[in-house]
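Hi Prof. W.,

I finally got the Carboxypeptidase-like regulatory domain-containing protein prediction working! I wasn't sure whether to trim anything, so I left the full sequence exactly as given:
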Amino acid sequence: MALTANPFHPATGELLPSYRDAYLRGDLSAKNTELVDAYLKANPSKGSEAYYRFHTLQTTGHSVRPVGWLDKQLNLLRTEPRRFRHRAGSLVLVGALISGAVFAASGPVASSKDSFTSTPVTATTVAEAGELLAPESVAALTTISGRILNEKGQPLVGATVLDKRTHRGVSTDAQGRYSFAVPRSQHVQLQFGYGGYQDADLLTKGQSLGDVALHPRTDLPKKRWWQLF
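And this is what came out:
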């Protein structure tokens, strides 16, 4: 069933992560798809996050079906690489788009009416699209995964993993697990956080970090409970 509720945060106006994922699966209503299309078009950095998330979902076995603005961008990469190359500078971290298209072409993706998977993305297409881009923009992606735990070894649900350079982030599931797409051959500083706990900053170069344990903050005032008679 297509999701019809408002996909944006009522206070900040940002696209909610659950609705972003629904958009990448093609599960939003037609109206909400149009709203998300307009949002991603107006916010290139959020478009970049969507590309990375698409890649993460695809490589971890989730069913994804690009629609609307995302489908158009992927089709543009496939069919008009030279034109895309000259306008790529307006897209933040366009390497995510290239890598996502390559993975999508080589793996099972739910089909849509004009799916970009009908014509495989070739090595030549990718090379032409990235010819004028900075080396870091076309770095291959890899997905790292792990768990975030508390000081007792219990999973922290909704803990966050943040790339401190790009400010992209994901949150953990009910088991404290996360999956995150990062450049394969570049050092990335990740910040692991949870409310009331001390942040942990760790460096990775495309390698999973395993379990990360967070500890309660000691600078917070202790809560006092008063019993009234």
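The longest helix spans residues 44-59. Does that look reasonable to you?

Thanks,
D.
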